[in-house]
Automatic annotation (TrEMBL):
Membrane-spanning residues: none
PROSITE patterns: RECOMBINASES_1, RECOMBINASES_2, RECOMBINASES_3
Active site: 17
Chain ranges of the Resolvase/invertase-type recombinase catalytic domain: 9-142
InterPro entries referenced in this protein's UniProt entry, alphabetically: Recombinase_CS (IPR006118), Resolv_N (IPR006119), Resolvase-like_N_sf (IPR036162), SSR_resolvase (IPR050639)
CDD domains: SR_ResInv
Protein name: Transposon Tn21 resolvase
Keywords: DNA integration, DNA recombination, DNA-binding
GO molecular function, one term: DNA strand exchange activity
Any GO BP annotation: DNA integration
Organism: Pseudomonas inefficax
SUPFAM superfamilies: Resolvase-like
Length: 187
């Protein structure tokens, strides 16, 4: 039992970058008490299920993540998450890399975490660079029109006209706050 009288939990965190990606390969066969799953980019830590996991775990709990890049794509974010959690007495295990962090001072593990986190950050940078290059080439050929809108500007304006805040309209329509702002600026 931990300090709040709750049984220690083994909690899984799964993340894929988009809604249509499959999560089954991550943590398959690992016995877990609870699983939190995000289906969006790991570019920031502002992910609903990650935030829910951070609120849920308590001292003595263990978090299991398939691989380091599933937790964070930024070295700064990764190091901060691991440090904050281990300071709270939460253990973190990266299944693929076979690394576990318990809060003990282990220079080799810190080096491995920093190196693997740097690789994840580098991979993200390379993906973004290739994406920009591909878009530029497609624009040169006149075939790139941008992403098709999931919600038209009229629906956004209607939500705002009904009295919803920009943030509430974005949430209810399933779009970003910046999408709502752009739609309202175009008025």
């Amino acid at each position: 039992m931990n300090t709040e009288g709750k049984e220690m939990a083994k909690v899984g965190y799964i993340r894929v970058s988009s809604l249509d990606q499959n999560t089954e390969r991550q943590l398959d066969g690992v016995a877990l008490d609870k699983v939190f799953t995000d289906k969006l980019s790991g570019a920031t830590t502002d992910r609903p299920q990650l935030q829910a996991l951070l609120e849920y775990v308590r001292e003595g709990d263990s978090i299991v993540v398939h691989s380091i890049d599933r937790l964070a794509r930024s070295l700064v974010d990764l190091l901060k998450l691991v440090e904050d959690l281990t300071k709270r007495g939460v253990h973190i295990c990266f299944h693929k890399e076979k690394l576990e962090f318990t809060g003990e001072d282990n220079p080799t593990q810190h080096l491995m975490l920093s190196m693997m986190g740097a690789v994840a950050q580098f991979e993200r940078s390379m993906i973004k660079e290739r994406q920009r290059e591909g878009i530029a080439k497609a624009k040169e050929k006149g075939v790139y029109k941008g992403r098709t809108k999931t919600v038209d500007d009229d629906a956004i304006r209607a939500a705002i006209a009904e009295g919803q805040s920009f943030r509430k309209a974005a949430e209810s329509l399933g779009v970003s706050l910046s999408t709502v702002q752009r739609a309202m600026k175009a008025v």
